[in-house]
Design brief:
three-stranded antiparallel sheet, 26% helix, extended
């Protein structure tokens, strides 16, 4: 069994803070909101060639979170959105239904 390592979620807050500081230095303006979209789960629909058997196959493609979204929020699950307010550095995750 592979050992599992816990990651302190405050690490992501520090990363977001550093990214916001960079954005402010490049943009020259302090006030702003960034909206981010994580990766989406994709389903592939395939129709088989056998007329005697209903061979439609729905396959979920292996999901991998967008690396930038994971870097900023630590989210591994699909279909999340996020917003970051640059004045307060407050981040909000929008959880899918």
């Amino acid at each position: 069994m592979t050992p599992s390592f816990k990651i302190d979620m405050s690490m992501y807050k520090e990363i977001r803070s550093n990214v916001i500081d960079k954005l402010i230095s490049y943009a020259g303006a302090k006030h702003g909101i960034a909206f981010l979209e994580g990766g989406h789960q994709t389903t592939r629909y395939e129709a088989g060639g056998n007329v005697f058997v209903d061979s439609q196959i729905d396959t979920d493609i292996l999901f991998r979170q967008d690396s930038k979204f994971h870097y900023l929020f630590g989210v591994k699950e699909p279909d999340f959105f996020a917003a970051i307010e640059t004045d307060t550095k407050k981040a909000v995750l929008f959880i899918p239904q």
